[in-house]
Each structure stands twice: as structure tokens, then as C-alpha cells.
TrEMBL record:
InterPro entries: Tscrpt_reg_PadR_C, Tscrpt_reg_PadR_N, WH-like_DNA-bd_sf, WH_DNA-bd_sf. Gene3D superfamilies: Winged helix-like DNA-binding domain superfamily/Winged helix DNA-binding domain (1.10.10.10). Residues 7-77 form the Transcription regulator PadR N-terminal domain. It comes from the Bacteria. Signal peptide: none annotated. Residues 91-166 form the Transcription regulator PadR C-terminal domain. This is PadR family transcriptional regulator.
Length: 170
């Protein structure tokens, strides 16, 4: 997901000012993607240049509001209707690390797997605690659920790696 599309999605609910967009973006993603306020304003400037947003006046405290344009609505609709392709996702750093550990000399693959398992379990526990404490609603819960499911899948894959390693050395 790009910051641009996330901000457009939030602006589709109505005009917002920069800091408000930052807070809503972070709340919607369960604070898993913190934004620098500079990123927000830089992105808004680019979207204004590209005709996706326009100045939307000021709120009662004088903060500049941004509003989505028709071109912005079309862009966010296109984004929502287009599935995320595997090529659009970042590379799987863990799979590459394990593959390189297999290929490298003098690397204890069991130790690499054990270290990752420990870190993944810690992350899973933190995510579960965060889910129990979540109060921001459905968006936050769904993001945390996704992260929990990915951590669980990673644990299963690490189990598989260990099983294959044992099989190879039996």
C-alpha cells in the first residue's frame, strides 16, 4: 500500500488536515505503519500537483483542509478494485536468509531457525497483547489479525524447515 492511496481513502470520508490524516492513518493500520508528518504533507503536495486532492478551505481553528477530487476518487476506486499481486509485495527477507544460510559455509542453520522462531514467538505474543488492548475498532483489529496470521504462518514454515533439515540428516 502506498501512503498516497491510504490518504486518499481517508479523504474519501471528507476534508481533513494533515495531522488529522496522520493520526487516522496510524489508527487505521493499528499503529503498525507510523508516518512522519513531513511524509503526509509531501504526499499531499504531490497529490495536489497530480490533481487528486485540492485545497478544501480551513477548519474552525484555521488549519488548511484537503479534499479529494473526482480524479482522486477514481484513483482510490481503482486501487480498491485491483488485487494486490505477489510481485507488489516486498521480498521475503526470511526465506532469502534461510536459503543463504543453506548455501553458505559455516552457518548453523538450526541456530538461524531457532533465533527466528524466538523472535517470531515474541512478536506473536506482542501482537496478541495489542489485539486484546485494541480500542480503535474494526480496521485496527483486521490489521492486527493479519499480522498474527502471518506470524503463525511463519512459525509453521520454520517448523517445516526444521523437519526438512532433520529428514536430510537422518
Amino acid at each position: 500500500m502506498s501512503i498516497r492511496h491510504g490518504l486518499l481513502a481517508l479523504l474519501s470520508k471528507g476534508p481533513r488536515y494533515g495531522y488529522q490524516l496522520r493520526v487516522e492513518f496510524e489508527a487505521s493500520t493499528g499503529a503498525t505503519w507510523p508516518l512522519n508528518i513531513g511524509q503526509v504533507y509531501t504526499t499531499l503536495s504531490r497529490m495536489e500537483r497530480d490533481g487528486l486532492v485540492a485545497p478544501g478551505g480551513e477548519d474552525d481553528q484555521g488549519r488548511a483542509l484537503y479534499a479529494i477530487t473526482e480524479a482522486g476518487r477514481q484513483e482510490v476506486e481503482r486501487w480498491f478494485s485491483t488485487p494486490v499481486a505477489p510481485a507488489d509485495r516486498p521480498r521475503d527477507e526470511l526465506a532469502i536468509k534461510v536459503a543463504m544460510a543453506v548455501a553458505a559455509r559455516d552457518v548453523d542453520l538450526r541456530a538461524v531457525i531457532h533465533a527466528q522462531r524466538t523472535a517470531t514467538m515474541r512478536s506473536l505474543q506482542e501482537l496478541t497483547r495489542a489485539k486484546r488492548a485494541a480500542t480503535d475498532g474494526l480496521a485496527e483489529r483486521l490489521v492486527l489479525d493479519s499480522m498474527i496470521f502471518k506470524a503463525e504462518a511463519e512459525q509453521r514454515w520454520l517448523d517445516h524447515c526444521e523437519a526438512v533439515l532433520k529428514e536430510k540428516h537422518s
